[in-house]
Specification:
By secondary structure, this protein is mainly β. 12% of the residues lie in helices and 52% in strands. The strands form 9 sheets. A 4-stranded antiparallel beta sheet has the order 3-34-33-32, with no helix packed on it. The protein has a 4-stranded antiparallel beta sheet with strand order 4-5-6-7, with no helix packed on it. A hairpin with a 3-residue loop joins strand 21 and strand 22.
Length: 398
């Protein structure tokens, strides 16, 4: 029981003090529980919203801005540094998504092709002799070869590898970004193998060459690696290794960085890794003939025909180690399939666009009333740029 002391203040007994402590503790626990419940509700709401957005499907969009263009029938489109590269036989235009001209480059080519690595872009004339080396600031250098060009690859600092044809087989050359010749010479494979494709590492130190050999009716492909650092100087012709693949044609090679290279064959996809002398680390089998193979630096996609009455296709996406990330059936009679810069898969025909996420969600479907040339992701998950015939639209899905 509380009593008053001589100063008039009440004193609290031990039992009453303990009761006060219990009440204060219970009050604090109630506040803590309410706070925890509120935070849990907020967390569940955030997770729910995230799942809703991740699995939501969109069938329309709002146009945020629209700009008219004037193109010819021969115009092709690409994406470079988040902007649009528009090119044809007589020149290229580099435009932002508002259709504002950044630069233009005139040339005369019969079959212009692009290759891009980080900050550098090359435009070259396949079976011709012209090469233009560019960045977002414009022309950095140009090359005129003395032999017809088969393939060109550019590195991250502008070094260019060129595979050319000559009467005796093939000729390979490396050029600086200003067009200066660095290395050149004839290239021959084992037992007369003929080079069909090249790849250049981002730092331009390693070069891979796919060579095809046909002997007594037997086909064999060999992937050879050349190193132009001090490591390769100790090897004959800078060749630091080669791997052969019997009964396989390898028409395409791609470095996805400095130390990883992918070989795309007709029966498997081979992945090589190594800082100086790349080694074969993964083989991803192609179980039957693939209709399409596409890739970026992290993933490989394959499309197979399901051979069913509904005429559906089967989409398979793997990571570089061969792990299956996503599988999906679709029925669009497509003309192009590719990874967008945000890793989404874009499947399109002339007027129809389907976008899938790596979770397998069919995020977007739309049928346009005009030709769709290009889809470029914007600054958020719902913002895109559609490059359509005669118009560029910045949109937000809804």
């Amino acid at each position: 029981m509380a009593e008053k002391n001589k100063n008039g203040f009440r004193t609290v007994g031990e039992a009453e003090a303990e009761e006060y402590k219990i009440k204060i503790r219970e009050h604090r626990l109630k506040i803590l529980k309410r706070t925890a419940i509120a935070l849990l509700i907020l967390l569940l709401a955030v997770i729910g919203l995230g799942l809703f957005m991740a699995f939501r499907q969109y069938g329309s969009y709002d146009v945020l801005s629209s700009v008219q263009r004037s193109d010819t029938m021969a115009t092709k489109f690409g994406e470079f540094q988040g902007n649009i590269i528009k090119y044809s036989n007589d020149g290229a235009f580099y435009l932002d998504t508002e259709n504002e001209l950044i630069w233009n480059q005139t040339y005369e080519m019969s079959n212009p092709q692009l290759d891009i690595c980080e900050q550098y872009l090359v435009i070259y004339d396949k079976k011709g002799t012209q090469i233009y080396i560019l960045t977002k600031d414009g022309l950095q250098g140009n090359i005129e070869t003395t032999m017809p060009i088969r393939q060109v690859r550019v590195a991250a600092q502008g070094t260019v590898a060129v595979l050319m044809e000559n009467k005796r087989g093939a000729f390979l050359a490396l050029y600086g970004k200003d067009g200066s010749n660095l290395v050149s010479g004839e290239i021959h494979g084992e037992q007369g193998g003929y080079p069909v494709a090249i790849a250049l590492s981002h730092d331009a130190i390693k070069l891979a060459v796919s060579m095809l050999n046909v002997n007594d009716g037997n086909i064999k492909s060999t992937v050879a690696f050349y190193n132009y650092s001090s490591v390769g100087q100790n090897e004959i012709d800078n060749c630091v290794g080669a791997v052969s693949f019997p009964d396989m044609v390898i028409p395409e090679l791609k470095f996805t960085g400095n130390d990883r290279m992918i070989a795309f064959g007709d029966s498997e996809i081979a992945v090589f890794e190594g800082t100086q002398k790349p080694q074969l680390i993964t083989e991803i089998p192609i179980e039957k003939e693939a209709e399409s193979i596409f890739y970026n630096e992290s993933y490989v996609g394959l499309v197979y025909d399901n051979e069913d009455e509904a005429v559906t296709k089967h989409l398979l996406v793997c990571d570089i180690e061969g792990k299956v990330i996503m599988e999906k059936d679709f029925s669009l009679d497509y003309t192009d399939i590719a990874f967008l810069s945000n890793d989404e898969v874009c499947i399109r025909s002339e007027t129809v666009c389907d976008i899938y996420t790596l979770r397998g969600v069919h995020k977007f479907h739309y049928e346009f009333d005009r030709t769709l040339y290009r889809v470029i992701p914007g600054g958020s998950d719902l913002n895109y740029t559609f490059v359509l015939s005669d118009v560029t639209e910045k949109v937000r899905l809804k």
